[in-house]
Amino acid sequence: MNLRSAFLIGFFLLSGVTSLPASDSYIRIDKSENKLTYYYFNVPLRSFPVATGRLKEDTPIGTYGVVMMVKNPWYLKTNIAGGSPDNPLGVRWIGLDVPGTDGSKYGIHGTNRPELIGSHVSAGCVRMKNTDVTWLYDHVHPGTLVEIVD
Fold it and tell me: Is 109 a catalytic residue?
């Protein structure tokens, strides 16, 4: 077990979180590089460019569990159907258990504006190209840990 794994396990044991199952994978999002890396058994398997919050504080730093997963999510603000090419959430939603939320406020999702990937443009979510978020969605599950760093 490496130091990061020991930290994550200790963090969740000390915080009293017991509802997240053990996971063989985790995700690390580096906001300074706008890069998401998927780790499998502590080995970086794939990295993807992402878009993060316009302001440094928009995308919260910390370690969160995946608590919601939705294929073709509806965009409720303007009632755009899931799967629509106009949907700003793209084709997948991976919701994060940021304190005070339920997995529907902060997440990793696709986008209908792939040209903005690599930028600081979101209201707080982590945006990915639809092909990339589909791959990620197929490799994570509720309980997967997501570490967001500056």
Answer: yes
